[in-house]
Write a structure and sequence with these properties.
This protein is of the alpha+beta class and 275 residues long. 28% of the residues lie in helices and 25% in strands. β6 and β7 form a beta hairpin.
């Protein structure tokens, strides 16, 4: 029996030692200072609501530092990531023989659609201030005429520098999509119930977006939608738009001119707009 107790005691001692060893092996962060985006939610912007005299505007992108603060400002190096899509390759008989990567259309061009991150003036702005671990980095967008016809994409990432190494791989890229026309905003990013504005206003179209602006007289943006959602006013605004659409569609002049009933596009076969 004594031997059994001795064995149990010895086993318990070894177990405690193993636990102690395991605890001592838990790493304590003491590595490089890391930088990453606070989230990967795409950010959208349109110049549409700005006066024609406005030729540039700034979009602020939130980032986060892992590894503590410093007593001096630290420069962050931003880069643009080229996006690609899969394109099927066919032979002369029409048989698929492969897939190739091709650049995504309407990729933003530095100096044309946004101020190049390597410009000296931009380098002075792309910093994390002393004593801070969070920052808002300015992305200066340029109002090029091409934005009236298409939405352009700017996918951001980081490059390591003397101040920062790269952080979480899942938080290293962020998409900016912008134009000078009516643009989907985040809460209306899909035509399904995964986008809350769809549940309020239905399928998105630029003509619907335009009509809402004409009716309400204020920019229909993500900030606008979040404000009415905070007040629980979705049904109220849905009813306003339904009434305004009914008035428009029953106006004799609109009917005679072919503007009514309102459709998503100028094509007479285009789906009718509803709320």
């Amino acid at each position: 029996m004594k031997n059994i107790y001795s064995l149990i005691t010895l086993w318990g001692t070894c177990l405690l030692g193993m636990v102690a060893c395991q605890k001592s092996e838990i790493p304590v962060y003491s590595g490089d200072t890391l930088v990453q985006f606070q989230d990967t939610i795409p950010q959208g912007y349109t110049f549409l609501y700005e006066p024609s005299s406005i030729s540039r505007d700034t979009l602020w992108v939130p980032i986060r530092v892992i590894g503590g603060t410093t007593s001096h400002d630290r420069a962050v190096k931003l880069t643009q990531v080229q996006e690609y899509r899969d394109s099927l390759i066919y032979d002369q008989s029409g048989k698929q023989i492969g897939i190739e990567k091709v650049p995504v259309l309407f990729t933003a061009v530095a100096g044309k659609h946004y101020v190049d991150f390597d410009q000296p003036a931009m380098k002075d702005l792309l910093v994390v201030k002393s004593g801070q671990v969070d920052a808002l980095l300015p992305i200066i967008l340029l109002r090029d005429p091409s934005l009236t016809n298409n939405s352009y994409r700017l996918r951001l990432s980081f490059a390591a520098n003397d101040n920062f190494r790269l952080g979480d791989s899942k938080l290293l890229e962020k998409l900016i999509q912008f134009s000078d026309r009516y643009e989907r905003f985040y809460s209306w990013r899909f035509d399904n119930y995964n986008a809350p504005a769809f549940g309020t206003f239905g399928k998105y179209s630029q003509r619907k977006h335009e009509f809402m602006y004409e009716t309400l007289g204020e920019p229909i943006t993500e900030e606008w939608y979040q404000a009415l959602a905070k007040e629980g006013a979705q049904n109220h605004y849905q009813n306003i738009m339904r009434e305004a659409l009914s008035i428009f569609n029953n106006d004799p002049e609109n009917i005679a001119s072919g503007k009514a009933p309102m459709r998503e596009t100028a094509d007479e076969k285009s789906p009718l707009i509803t709320f």
